[in-house]
From TrEMBL:
Protein's recorded name: Lysophospholipase L1-like esterase
Pfam families named in the record: Lipase_GDSL_2 (PF13472)
Natural source organism: Cryobacterium roopkundense
Signal peptide as annotated in the record: none
Highest taxon of source: Bacteria
Amino acid sequence: MSVSVVFLGDGLIAGGQWTEWIPEYEVTNLGVSGNTTDEVITALESVVGLAPDAIVIHVGTNDLGWRKSDEYVVRNLETILYRLRKALPGTRLLVQSVFPRDREFAETIRSINRHIRQYAPTQHAQYLDLWPALAQPDGEINSNLSEDHLHLTNEGYQIWLGELRAGLELLFERPPITTSIPIQHA
């Protein structure tokens, strides 16, 4: 029996070769380049209609490009998680941290990630913190992983995939109603 996983979010999701990279899952990629949290909210009904076994969410960085506040992004991410949980109580939800970008966004992104890490368990969603794998100590995305401080290089995607694989394994080991996924970094 195949396990269906919907990838939901922005251009970083859209750019991933998820079907090829994780062939053990039946993947539907609903990432759209330029998507903000507002666009993801408007697309939720189509996601619910698919009734997948799991939903992997990554969105929020484009909101920052439109100068939305951390409170705005957090509220929308909370809305996404709440609506998905209410409509799909048996679906596993994995929300990923907003990736680091330019240094100027570091504190805002840290604030968003801190709030979502705390909120995710209230909706029985698991949180995958990718910040340690992608950020430099100053909060900027590692320059080896992004040429423009936003989109990932092939190496960046491979690092994300490694973290995500571990996160998905843990996601499916637990019932749909658990808490954050602790990933140990060497």
